[in-house]
Amino acid sequence: MREKETTLYLGPQHPGITGNMMVKLKVTGDTIIKAETHVGYLHRAFEKLMEARNWMQCFPIVCRICVPEPDPNEENLARIIEELEGREVPERAKYIRVMVLELARLGTYLLWMGGQSGSMGLYTMPQWTIGDRDYILDLFEALTGGRVYHMYIWPGGVRRDLPEGFKDKVLKTMDYLEGRLKDYDDLLFDNALFYKRAKGIGVIDKSKAMEWGVVGAPLRGCGIKHDVRIDEPYEVYDKLKFVVPTAEGGDVWARALVRRQEFEQSISIIRQVMEQMPSGEFYNKVPNPLNWKVPAGDAYVKTESARGEFGYYGVSDGGLKPRRMHVRGPAYVHGVSLLERILVGANIADVSFIMNSLGTCPPEIER
Predict the structure, then answer these.
(1) What is the fold of 45-365?
(2) Can the peptide bond before residue 12 be classed as cis, meaning omega within 30 degrees of 0?
(3) What is the pLDDT of residue 313?
(4) Could you give the CA distance from residue 298 to residue 303 in angstroms, rounded to a whole number?
């Protein structure tokens, strides 16, 4: 007797969904035979909105493209403008930018740990990591005035210098997070149940990973070492010592191991930044933003976000506003073409588990 096919809708309002999106599942029994990603349940059309605003007004917009990690968006937009205008960035500002980007990466990984654990019913972990992430948000609030959206990285440098005593606060937070790693290991990474749930689940074919456009931890979890910070260094990453972790298997377990190791690497990078940061200017002042015409041309820049290679392509016609802006976020591949492929044959219970391992920000898809 043929099993009945059933259509299920996971999301958009569901605790296992990474953001406001929906996955339409066709199943037989509890096995998925087809998956379709649907987005558009959140703010969208950022690229078009930017065409109606001057260059500086675009910064509050791009932050919303990935709420858990808005700073790479600011970094990319700032570097687009700097490249088009040929504007130099002070050395101190470059170090501060790296510090901000790595703090954002740590905060994103703490969210990932909580989401990955919660999707298997291990609810102690998100209680810990969401609480620990608040210490990073405290640093952002002290530095920028905002906990989530910062509008801190902008053309010519950063919006303000480090406040008094900020270095000590950062180093103290790094010491705390490093000390917490043993607790994270005991509860999650050394947990036999997590290994059983993660091993062999959501496998990405290594031979297809590059062809499909997979980046970040999902790519490095296939044993492929690719990181924009190393391959095409920007800011001062070429002056810092760190390694790019990889793992074999291409499954949820491998991706977890990569992120766990990258967490330590980010702590090390931030410590190096705080020790090596030079004195001097933090901002190369730009013209009046209300009457600032960026030279005509086009540019493409990219950063290594917590989700992987994250690119911006911008075009200026020499006017007060961007002529065109295109965002190439990792979530477009991970949350649509990749997710739809690797969910086929998976169990319904593993959908959220696999989604969290890929790292998706829906507005990067419906941008």
Answers:
(1) Cytochrome-c3 Hydrogenase; chain B (1.10.645)
(2) yes
(3) 96
(4) 17
